[in-house]
Amino acid sequence: NAGVMQNPRHLVRRRGQEARLRCSPMKGHSHVYWYRQLPEEGLKFMVYLQKENIIDESGMPKERFSAEFPKEGPSILRIQQVVRGDSAAYFCASSRLRREAFFGQGTRLTVV
Amino acid sequence: EDQVTQSPEALRLQEGESSSLNCSYTVSGLRGLFWYRQDPGKGPEFLFTLYSAGEEKEKERLKATLTKKESFLHITAPKPEDSATYLCAVHNMSQQGGSEKLVFGKGTKLTVNP
């Protein structure tokens, strides 16, 4: 049973480009979460999704960031017009309802 | 607003020197407290879930305990391979819309010297 799969592991984008981060949850998990981790900071919640639904996006910046979890395929976190402040590690986690969340290895985004 | 504070920020131990990490929390209704381990460049690895005061869980050299205001992660006779950042997180049952999000502390960076 493969764990949570994230790709790419490392992503470099120039300012103004778009970044697309992918996450495939563990088999049997229908809940997906995205977190952001800045150096020396804790993990910050961004968004919680179930299939085809955004349940809680209270941690998402109001502009440039969006997330989806389609009926088929991985969850996608999209960042448009990236800025240097978007450089961080982005982690995806998945779970069953009301159970512990398991994390992927993260995507490290660097904006140059 | 839910808050999670971990202490100390960093801890250095000699191999075999037991100690405890602290996680104090403020939530309106705790549904679960979680401990994770994170190695550099990796994602958090799930360790324990605690649901109610008085609950304890063990795994190898680690033991997690929970009170109404804080949790402790006890490390008995640690080894160098226990070196990592240990993260604590809480899930609030009162979250709007039934959100399953976790609120994390900043972690305790543990270094165990041989």
What does it look like?
The complex is a heterodimer of chains A (112) and B (114). Chain A is built from no helices and eleven strands. By secondary structure, chain A is mostly beta strands. In chain A, strands 2, 4, 5, 6, 9, 10 and 11 form a seven-stranded mixed sheet that branches. In chain A, a hairpin with a 2-residue loop joins β5 and β6. Chain A is globular and about 35 Å long. By secondary structure, chain B is mainly beta. Chain B has no helices and eleven strands. In chain B, strands 2, 4, 5, 9, 10 and 11 form a six-stranded mixed sheet that branches. In chain B, strands 1-3-8-7-6 form a five-stranded antiparallel sheet, with no helix packed on it. In chain B, a hairpin with a 3-residue loop joins β7 and β8. Chains A and B meet through β4, β5 and β10 of A and β4, β5 and β10 of B.
Summarize the structure.
Chain A has no helices and eleven strands. Chain A is mainly beta and 112 residues long. Chain B is globular.
Please tell me what the overall shape of chain B is. globular
* SSE-based structural type of chain A: mainly beta
What composes the largest sheet of chain A? 7 strands, mixed
Question: How much helix is in the residues of chain B?
Answer: under 10%
H and E order of chain A: EEEEEEEEEEE
Shape of chain A: globular
Beta-strand percent range of chain B: over 45%
Low-confidence stretches of chain A: none
Q: pLDDT below 50 for ≥5 consecutive residues: which ranges of chain B?
A: none
Please provide the count of β strands of chain A: 11
Strand content of chain A: over 45%
Radius of gyration of chain B: 14 Å
What labels describe this entry?
heterodimer; A: 112 residues; mainly beta; 0% helix; B: 114 residues; 6-stranded mixed β-sheet; 11 strands; 57% strand
Give the SSE map:
The complex is a heterodimer of chains A (112) and B (114).
Chain A: E1 5-7, E2 10-13, E3 19-24, E4 31-37, E5 43-50, E6 53-56, E7 65-68, E8 75-79, E9 88-95, E10 102-103, E11 107-111
Parallel strand pairs in A: 2-11
Antiparallel strand pairs in A: 1-3, 3-8, 4-5, 4-9, 5-6, 7-8, 9-10, 9-11
Chain B: E1 3-7, E2 10-14, E3 19-26, E4 30-38, E5 45-50, E6 56-59, E7 62-66, E8 70-75, E9 84-92, E10 103-104, E11 108-113
Parallel strand pairs in B: 2-11
Antiparallel strand pairs in B: 1-3, 3-8, 4-5, 4-9, 6-7, 7-8, 9-10, 9-11
